[in-house]
Amino acid sequence: MHVAFPTAVEDVVRKASPRHRRWQRLLDGLTIDPDELPRPISPPSDRDFIICGCPRSGTTLLAAILWQPPHVATVSEPWDGLRLAPADLFRSLRDEIATTGSLTRGRLDVDRLSAERAVVWGRDGELRTSVAMNEGFLLGVKWPAFWRYLPLLPQTKFLVCVRDPIEVIESFVHHGGDLVRGMDYRCAINRAMNEELTRATDDLGARRALLYEYINSRVLPYLDDPNVFVVRYERWFTDRDRLVDEIGRFLGRPIGQGMPDIRTPRSRGTDPETRALVDRFCPSAPRLGYRTT
User: What's the whole-model pTM score?
Assistant: First the structure.
């Protein structure tokens, strides 16, 4: 698969721009690294849950479906999730809802979701959402990188999203950003992963496959744990009713179908180069239930 990248001069110009410098300052301020937190890590409350998994595996769609006030609220990729330990993050979000009746953190455009049944991103901190929740409501935070907490929070409920590797890797290319280079956000929570992947190869196609493998091979040992529920992306298009019911039983509360219209994605997964990379670099794929040949 051919991907066009900036020339060296274009890259220098980009990095010198005010926008890039602001972005770099933001990333530098995202200092949380689970490996450096004191042990044991304090868990969130038993009414809190985490949505995570490899990027481009359906975490955003799941968070949008589970936006179901007044019983369930989700917050998608708040930057504070990469600054605060989990218990502090959930506590601060609950305090904000209780004291202001609204949420300003998170990137899901709830107004567009309600009006158009569309899953649309906004900027964290720029979307104020009025929200009235019932006592005892469930609160979820969606951050793909929170798979890092799987071995550290054995009592916390995790919804782990998985998806066909060929679809995911080709989606990295179309999404762009660091993912097309086979990395995730260049901040503390991803630093060790990004450094290992960069050392592994300069071939960006191989690195994208290795990014999928890096995350999913580390998620796999926890998928049978009682505090983990696997959300297979493909089930949204073939088994939505049953999947929603199973998620509700896992969370301990019946949930509805959610607001988003779910449209079958444009078919990819046909690029022979990507298929060959998955066969070579992604041994976790068949263990997750995905055929690659």
Answer: 0.93
